Amino acid sequence: MIKTEDIRIRDPFVLAVEEEQAYYLFGTTDENVWEGKGTGFDVYKSRDLINWEGPSAAFRPGKDFWADENFWAPEVHFYKGTYYMLASFKKNGIPRGTQILSSRKPEGPYQPYTEGVITPEGWECLDGTLHIGKEGEPWLIFSREWTQVGDGEIYGVRLSENLKAREGEPVLLFKASQTPWAENVAPDKDTGGIRYVTDGPFLYDEEDGSLKLMWSSFYNGEYAIGSAESSSGDVTGPWIHEESPFYHKDGGHGMIFRAFDGRRILAIHAPNVRHMERPRFICIENGNKASDR
């Protein structure tokens, strides 16, 4: 067993499997996630969010897998009887993008499901997440990187029912600079440089029925999480942003899950410091931070 505070992980994602009364923790787990060769994703399993079994291999690339670096931010969703992993990958000369993998078991092993990335070809994209709309239609929500556009963007695009392909053109939900709190973190920002980050979008239904979207950027020099609400109740928005971040203590890339005792829990990594990242689980009520679990 390993304790939560001893797990080094970025971009934590928790899948709660009711039938097992077990939590599965996925995330960016490679030793050198920025420059090193990608080796895959690990998974941990727990009954109490404190003590964890693992790690075990959730995904390891085959010899013919197209990407070899930046294996980032896996998240797993149960959809129509199958577990689907959405994760970001890159290869030198090929833009980063989100690909979908699948497995019959929550712990894997996961195998490529889509033919390459499901995000638009030629775009630098990351952190794709799956959202099921009001009519049961699947959506892919993802970030378009500041490395390509300067002012990071978040998009939504409809997927086919089997998640194999995009349907229609991506819809721009917002740019980072359009929000009240995200800051330009370019080193030369006083002379015209632009670097507005958009990381880790995650959609969730609030307890009052509203549709919310959390995402990460920077605020006062620290990694932070912002929240927005769709004024129409639909994925396409318009999205109305909170004036200040939801969380701003140098932690981010959040998602929300429901614990088996009924509490809603925000999972993040903190601090946002290389080789020091740890998962944190924060109980929330009515969209507000309450306390660490």
From TrEMBL:
The residue ranges crossing the membrane are none
What GO biological process terms does the UniProt entry carry, in alphabetical order? carbohydrate metabolic process
Molecular function terms from GO: hydrolase activity, hydrolyzing O-glycosyl compounds
Keyword Acyltransferase recorded: no
UniProt site positions, description: Important for catalytic activity, responsible for pKa modulation of the active site Glu and correct orientation of both the proton donor and substrate: D127
> Could you tell me the keywords of this UniProt record?
Glycosidase, Hydrolase
Determine the domain of life of the protein's source: Bacteria
Pathway given for this chain reads: Glycan metabolism; L-arabinan degradation
Q: Name one Pfam family in it.
A: Glyco_hydro_43
Family, according to the entry, reads as follows: Belongs to the glycosyl hydrolase 43 family.
Q: What is this protein called?
A: Glycosyl hydrolases family 43
Per the UniProt record, the source organism is Anaerobium acetethylicum
